[in-house]
């Protein structure tokens, strides 16, 4: 009787994977399902609306005056309204400029108290002017908070003012698709810019192109060049902002919500620990291995939404190669380095001495390896879906089959959830 039970289990696993693969609300599989023709309309859909999910504003419609600064802060309206975020961003800028103008007359020897919000802090006075270096410190939290708001402004501005009009230009009419197009447009811009920036920074470091031994040689790497520190903190601000969007459900949650939250927590775990214990060189490598394939992924999703059939298949095939190399091979290179090259750390640095900037006692090898391995596990799950999507796309292209689905079936969203901006 064991054999039929095993067969049943295999069928259940296969059925579960098929449900994920064909789930239009899955963040990875959904955008690659066959799309409704771009000019098609679903009855009752208003193409002119640029809505957002109702629950994104659930807590925003209560309380004090909608025009007050305190209202914007209390309700986190700045997370969804670009004008609100811009208002908060301009206040420190104006105060900083006023201080620079007035300080020479009233407080000549005092540093500008608003500078840590806008610029990186903790310059090392003993470093050379030709090669300035920065340490980490508590004022980094101010920079982080400011740029969480900055990325909220950038995200919503690009999504609403740039990508949604582009979606309509390319013939997308259903509001849920326009919203998803906006999300992926911002993702392509962000990951493309940060991937290129990370590439530039790594080219200036001894770790250039994953020379992994230099993650450990010369540790602790407690002093950073200004570009590396700025890049690291802005990455941290972005991921904090993305986690805020997920946890507050400022966008309509997808069905793989738990996977995405887990991914964001693991990412922030890596960011926080690597920055705290002075492992920013391997941190830069992790960032790059994530950002570059994510830019290709977002671009492929955009092509699928626009139904550029031949181009999207070519783009997706390139994306699979890029994802395989960056998200799996290079991830394994970093994991192997953590496991086998950890002992390249100088003997004097193999202790827990925060005042000296060293934290890498023997058990820290496992604390570093575990989140990298956890990312690999999440990536392998998505990789399986990616390969199945690629096979399906190639089969459909070879057979000349185009599965035209209704907009409601394709999106998995209900028009009742649409709310005008």
UniProtKB/TrEMBL annotation:
Q: Which residues cross the membrane?
A: 85-107, 188-210, 260-279, 316-339, 359-385
List cellular component terms (GO): endoplasmic reticulum membrane
Span of domain TLC: 176-395
Per its record, what are the GO molecular function terms? sphingosine N-acyltransferase activity
Q: Which InterPro entries match?
A: Lag1/Lac1-like, TLC-dom
Q: Indicate how the chain sits in the lipid bilayer.
A: Multi-pass membrane protein
Q: Where in the cell is it found?
A: Endoplasmic reticulum membrane
Q: What keywords appear on the UniProt entry?
A: Endoplasmic reticulum, Glycoprotein, Membrane, Transferase, Transmembrane, Transmembrane helix
Q: Which PANTHER family match?
A: CERAMIDE SYNTHASE LAC1-RELATED (PTHR12560:SF11), LONGEVITY ASSURANCE FACTOR 1 LAG1 (PTHR12560)
- Name of the protein: TLC domain-containing protein
């Amino acid at each position: 009787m064991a054999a039929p039970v095993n067969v049943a289990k295999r069928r259940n696993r296969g059925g579960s994977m098929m449900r994920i693969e064909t789930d239009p609300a899955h963040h990875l599989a959904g955008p690659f399902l066959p799309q409704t023709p771009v000019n098609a309309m679903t009855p009752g859909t208003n193409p002119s609306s640029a809505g957002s999910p109702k629950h994104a504003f659930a807590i925003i419609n209560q309380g004090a005056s909608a025009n007050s600064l305190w209202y914007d802060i209390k309700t986190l309206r700045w997370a969804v309204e670009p004008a609100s975020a811009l208002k908060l961003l301009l206040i420190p800028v104006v105060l900083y400029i006023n201080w620079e103008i007035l300080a020479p007359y009233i407080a000549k020897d005092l540093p500008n108290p608003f500078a840590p919000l806008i610029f990186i802090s903790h310059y090392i006075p003993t470093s050379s002017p030709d090669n300035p270096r920065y340490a980490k410190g508590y004022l980094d939290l101010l920079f982080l908070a400011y740029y969480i708001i900055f990325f909220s402004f950038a995200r919503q501005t690009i999504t609403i003012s740039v990508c949604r009009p582009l979606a309509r230009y390319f013939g997308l009419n259903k509001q849920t698709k326009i919203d998803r197009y906006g999300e992926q447009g911002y993702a392509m811009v962000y990951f493309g810019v940060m991937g290129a920036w990370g590439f530039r920074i790594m080219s200036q470091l001894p770790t250039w192109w994953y020379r992994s031994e230099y993650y450990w040689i010369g540790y602790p790497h407690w002093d950073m060049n200004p570009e590396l520190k700025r890049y690291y903190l802005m990455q941290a601000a972005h991921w904090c902002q993305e986690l805020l969007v997920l946890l507050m459900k400022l966008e309509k949650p997808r069905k793989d919500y738990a996977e995405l939250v887990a991914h964001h927590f693991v990412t922030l775990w890596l960011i926080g620990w690597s920055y705290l214990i002075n492992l920013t060189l391997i941190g830069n490598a992790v960032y790059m291995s994530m950002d570059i394939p994510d830019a290709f992924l977002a671009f492929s999703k955009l092509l699928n939404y626009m139904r550029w059939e031949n181009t999207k298949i070519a783009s997706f095939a390139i994306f699979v190669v890029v994802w395989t190399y960056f998200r799996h091979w290079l991830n394994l290179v970093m994991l192997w380095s953590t496991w086998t090259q950890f002992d390249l750390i100088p003997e004097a640095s193999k202790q827990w001495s925060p005042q000296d900037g060293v934290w890498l006692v023997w058990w820290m090898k496992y604390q570093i390896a575990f989140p990298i391995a956890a990312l690999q596990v999440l990536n392998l799950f998505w990789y399986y879906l990616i390969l199945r999507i690629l096979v399906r796309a190639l089969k459909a292209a070879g057979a000349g089959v185009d599965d035209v689905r209704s907009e409601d079936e394709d999106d998995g969203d209900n028009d009742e959830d649409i709310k005008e901006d």
